[in-house]
Amino acid sequence: MELVECKNLCKTFDEKQILENINLTIPRGKIIGLLGKNGTGKTTLIKLLNDLLTPTSGEVLINGKKPGVESKKIISYLPERTYLDKTMKVSQVITFFEEFYDNFNKEKAIKLLKDLNLELNQRISQMSKGMQEKLQLILVMSRDAELYILDEPLGGVDPATRDYILDTILTNFNEGASVIISTHLIADIERILDEVIFIDKGKIYLASPADELRSKENASIDEIFRRCFKC
Amino acid sequence: MDYNFDNERPIYIQLVEKIRIEIVSGKLKKGQKIPSVRELALMMKVNPNTMQKALVELENEKLIYTERTNGKYVTEDEKLIERVKSELAKEKIENYINSMNSIGISFDEAIKYLQELGDKLKNKHN
Amino acid sequence: MLGKLLKYDLKWVYKVVAVFYVLALIFAILTRIFFSIENSLLFKIIGQIVNGAMISMLISSLINCLMRSWVRFIHNVYKDESYLTHTLPVEKKTIYLSKVLTAIICSFTTVLVAIGCLFISYYSKANMDVLKVFLKLTAESYDITVMGLLAIISVVIFLEILFIILIGYAGIIIGHKSNRNKMLKSVILGIVLYLVTSTLTLVVIYIIGLFNQDVMNIVNTTDIVNVDAIKSVMIAGIAIYMVYNVIYYLIGKMQLEKGVNVD
């Protein structure tokens, strides 16, 4: 059974088609880049996988089942939003995750927080947006999940932070698990990708193993992407 | 090992090249145990799957071998290492000649340059 | 999982509401103290002021109970925090049930604190006698004590508060099903639902009045209201609000289980 399967998946908002007939499978044990310009449907697809949107037609299957309690146990999702209750302290957020997710590794989270010099008794509201994003990444990567879905984890951060984030992802993802990374900053992450999916205007434009694509086109994924979607 | 990759060529091929150089240069000694795929991947900051693919390739070349449960080791076959080294050397020389040609220096002249400069460089290196 | 959700929901709502409870109780005690000091105009005036403060604290706690329940619901289920709420390994109906239980508990404690404050401020034999005189005849003849009647009224108020919160939830859930102006639609829907249901309540009471002359008198005459009629209406009110609350609970649950579409 595939980890993720989308069958004829469509999503429309007020007659506007955001996703059109998506057919896609995500295998186990791979790092997959979901690449596309802003506003092409990447986040919509990700939200459908996470039960934050309902399909207009077609279906999403996670381990053969529609998104629900079972899929939420095995998916660790980093949205582009800051989604924590701002009135809580870091330590309370850690407890919250520990209470709700059986696969949350508290020791790992605390260690990663220490590396970042984040105080456990700091309130979320006192943290900068960048810090909150790092905290969320730590929470998400501290789960022993089967699928990590990271929506624009590199958006709007400086190069040093970018390296930190990539390191954290690479070091902490569970063996045998898959990672979906959506981004439009391809050059920064392409070396860690097994597979790439180009998405454009709500459709899958191309899906291929990354190295195969490089050999075929004799160019970097970033370069190939630019060629495909020249403005 | 350097962590820089050229994104235009398959990453696994570049990994193979880098590790091959480590072996022929003696930084990885013959018969030495090499770290696990995951450790290597973290060291090089690449995807473990890509590292796995590179190691399979090196295993096909017999430069490394798997000892059932104990992990992977560098080959003990010195002749093989020497052969690979001379292949690499050949490649480097070809590259040298080619780049000399590209700036309008002929094959013979290129050799002469090398000999003339060779002594100076040798002193500098030592 | 319900227990864990409830813990966080209650904590959030009570963080502010509890402050008003404490303030209301403090002002209630002060009211009592200042009113009990005799022959001092100054203390009487201060007593009136703290009494007013107590009333406003009670009103604030009620408003906060309503508002914080709704705000929590919107934040948790539809705004940024929904990205966490809906990715917890919990069913949507459990998330909803936790919010409803929070509303029940908060409405209940608000009524309880209000009764407590009023009791602390005003309870005295003289005041009870005034109340008894006001209600006396029927209270005796229908074998119901003054306290009993007050208890029934409290239950009705509790159910009414809960009803308002649940209508708010239903308005929010249905309003957020559309893709535009979600908040505006939620508010309008909540108000419309409230007006429609309240009108229905009047119709039901009128129908009861057709069979019960005492109840009809409330509508028809300007005579002093018959306490028996109040009692009948209150008991009918309890039944009606119970039905409404169950209906709105089920509407909210069914709609939410169909899934959400968060921005």
List keywords for this structure.
heterotrimer, A: 231 residues, alpha/beta, Rossmann fold, 3-stranded antiparallel beta sheet, 9 helices, globular, C: 263 residues, mainly alpha, 2 domains, 0% strand
Description:
The complex is a heterotrimer of chains A (231), B (126) and C (263). In chain A, 35% of the residues lie in helices and 26% in strands. Chain A has helices at 42-49, 69-74, 90-100, 106-115, 129-141, 159-172, 186-189, 210-217, 221-228; strands at 4-13, 16-26, 31-35, 57-62, 75-78, 147-151, 178-183, 195-200, 203-209. In chain A, a hairpin with a 2-residue loop joins strand 8 and strand 9. Chain A is globular, with a radius of gyration of 18 Å. Chain B has 126 residues and is mainly alpha-helical. Chain B is built from five helices and three strands, in the order H-E-H-H-E-E-H-H. Chain B has helices at 11-24, 37-44, 48-60, 78-102, 107-125, and strands at 33-34, 64-67, 71-74. The longest helix of chain B has 25 residues, at 78-102. Chain B is elongated. The two termini of chain B are 23 Å apart. With 263 residues, chain C is mainly alpha-helical. Chain C folds into two domains: 1-123; 130-263, no CATH class. The longest helix of chain C has 37 residues, at 41-77. The radius of gyration of chain C is 21 Å and the shape is globular. Chains A and C meet through helix 2 and helix 3 of A and helix 1 and helix 3 of C.
Order of helices and strands of chain A: EEEHEHEHHHEHEHEEHH
Biggest sheet character of chain C: none
- How many structural units, i.e. domains of chain A? 1
CATH topology of chain A: Rossmann fold
> Count of helical segments of chain C?
9
Q: Helix tally of chain A?
A: 9
Provide the β-strand percentage band of chain C. under 5%
Low-confidence stretches of chain C: none
Total number of domains of chain C = 2
- What is the CATH C level class of chain A, in words? Alpha Beta
What gross morphology of chain A would you assign?
A: globular
Q: Give the distance, in angstroms, between the N- and C-terminal Cα atoms of chain A.
A: 39 Å
Considering DSSP H and I runs of 4 or more, what fraction of the residues of chain A is helical?
A: 25-40%
CATH A-level architecture of chain A: 3-Layer(aba) Sandwich
| SS elements, strand count of chain C | 0
- Report on the biggest sheet of chain A: 6 strands, mixed
Low-confidence stretches of chain A: none
Rounded radius of gyration of chain C (Å): 21 Å
Mean pLDDT figure of chain A? 92
Largest interface: A-C, 26 and 23 residues
Q: How much of the polypeptide of chain A forms β-strand, as a percent range? A: 25-35%
